[in-house]
Amino acid sequence: MPEKPEKAGTETTTAAADERPRRRQARGERRITQLLEAAAAVFSTTGYTAASTNAIAREAGVSPGTLYQFFPNKEAIAIELGSRLMHEMRQSYDEVLTPTDPAVTSLEEVITGAVDRFIEFNGRHPAFFALMHGPDIPGRIAEEHDALHTTLVARVETLVAPFVPDAPAPAVTRTARMCVGIYKAGLELILAHEGAEREAYIQELKEALLRYLRPLAGASCADTP
Amino acid sequence: MPEKPEKAGTETTTAAADERPRRRQARGERRITQLLEAAAAVFSTTGYTAASTNAIAREAGVSPGTLYQFFPNKEAIAIELGSRLMHEMRQSYDEVLTPTDPAVTSLEEVITGAVDRFIEFNGRHPAFFALMHGPDIPGRIAEEHDALHTTLVARVETLVAPFVPDAPAPAVTRTARMCVGIYKAGLELILAHEGAEREAYIQELKEALLRYLRPLAGASCADTP
DNA sequence: CAGAAATGCGAGCGATCTCTCGTGTTTGCC
DNA sequence: GGCAAACACGAGAGATCGCTCGCATTTCTG
Fold first, then answer.
1. Which of A170, A215, B85, B140 is the most buried (most CB within 10 A)?
2. Do B49 and A221 touch (CB under 8 A)?
């Protein structure tokens, strides 16, 4: 949430330089989520840079001035949206993406579960893909965006690590980054197709990840049942 | 090249609707390549949408008006640049990326050669990556851009096909698309690092492609020397 | 209920960008 | 040399966009 009240307390004269404590009313909170939903819709269809703040306000059914009552600038909208998506993804994760014991859960199961979850998440929040995949995103956001990406990689690292117990940390990071990259590439293909073809690409992505990771697990050849 | 003379011939009154045959002088041709080089520099640093035509003209050391003497609009610059890069890539290809006989050239060699070539090409022409990877590219270019991408996929198909003789065509296409996707993902990682780390990512990309493709070749397990 | 603060509006400012136009200069051709 | 076309310039028209400001309305608080 952008600038919470903070319960300013003994802030007599202060001149806090930047933020006056703004007491949001219930109506304001509603407007914020409403604006973020509109922003998500616009971002996912036009991308970040091409999305105009006026268009976001129009999509939300409010005036441009109202938008700027809640967000200091266009960047802040994307950052806050990314933050909320990240938060939601984390809890959409934790059910499936917690580190597992290789003896209990096979690599194949882990990949299938993770990929299915990610795809479903991206289906529900197309804006996430737009923000992650955005090379059109100007400087300042990149930091927040990197935090997003870094968190993602870290998650994949913890997922992959149990399967490669005898690998140095940098190698695990490289592997995790590569996995995320392969996933993004696969997702792009998946989103570009529909129906049976889409299912085929989903399967193809899982296969690609499986073949990429399996040799690391030390398991040699005997794997097919 | 944008609108060649065409040697208009018996074009009396015509009203050709769009293009008057423009006789380029040697100076004009030089300006065009000069402008395209400037555009490549600007595109690769700022991306397409963020690149202003004035900035391209300034980079080329000419006035904005001069730029529009040779290109009808900003899109045309990107399209022509993409076309020339594609052309150059094709001939940078053909030495290494012609279909090979699996009995003579191993999959590993093919992958190593192709990846090395692609990386070197992207190093010489950073704008290519910017144009290919551009989700910020507005509608009309997408078509030309798709042609670029499609050609690339077709090339990879012919490369992969000899190694999977017993696969239906759609499956080969999916595999080729996935390869291109994996390559783009790997390239992004490679470009984000330097020195030894970069080399490690190059190796990682080759490994990823190799592991992805090897199982298709029917070769089971005995491959390590 | 009264005052303050939060919310809401929308015209429009200033900056930027694409592209045009009138004019002047250079080049090719007879 | 002389003419027409190609080339070059740069101010600025026209449009868009991010964002502001003055003012009206709603909500909260004492």
1. B85
2. no
Q: Express each pLDDT in A69-104 by its tens digit.
A: 999 999 999 999 999 998 898 887 777 667 777 778
Smallest Cα distance from A9 to chain B, Å: 44
CATH topology of domain B26-71: Arc Repressor Mutant, subunit A (1.10.10)
CA distance B72 to A7: 58
Low-confidence ranges of chain A (pLDDT < 70): 1-21, 96-97, 134-136, 139-140, 218-225
CA B24 to C1' D2, whole Å: 22
Report CB contact under 8 Å: B212, A215: no
SS3 at position B116? helix
CATH number of B76-217: 1.10.357
Nucleotide nearest to A60 (CA to C1'): C8
Same fold across B26-71 and B76-217: no
Give the pLDDT confidence of B112-150 residue by residue, as tens digits: 999 999 999 999 999 998 888 766 676 666 777 778 788
Per-residue pLDDT of chain B (225 residues; tens, 9 = 90+): 444 333 333 333 334 444 556 789 999 999 999 999 999 999 999 989 999 999 999 999 999 999 999 999 999 999 999 999 988 988 877 776 677 777 788 899 999 999 999 999 999 999 998 888 766 676 666 777 778 788 889 989 998 888 888 889 999 999 999 999 999 999 999 999 999 999 999 999 999 999 999 998 764 444 443
Q: Compute the distance between CA of residue A45 and CA of residue A42 in angstroms, rounded to an integer.
A: 5
Domain A77-217: give its CATH code: 1.10.357.10
Taking the C-alpha atoms of residue A192 and residue B166, their distance in angstroms, rounded to an integer, is 26
> Which amino acid belongs to residue A158?
T
* Domain spans of chain B, in order of start: 26-71, 76-217
**CB-side neighbour CA atoms (13 Å) of B181:** 25
Helix (H, G, I), strand (E, B) or coil at B164: coil
Distance of residue A11 Cα from the nearest chain B Cα, in angstroms: 43
Q: How many CA atoms lie within 13 A of A110 on its CB side?
A: 25
Interface-testing mutation among A46, A136, A140, A205, with chain B (most B C-beta atoms within 10 A): A136
Q: Give me the residue from B184, B201, B212 closest to A174, CB to CB.
A: B201
Which pLDDT does position A135 carry in this prediction? 61
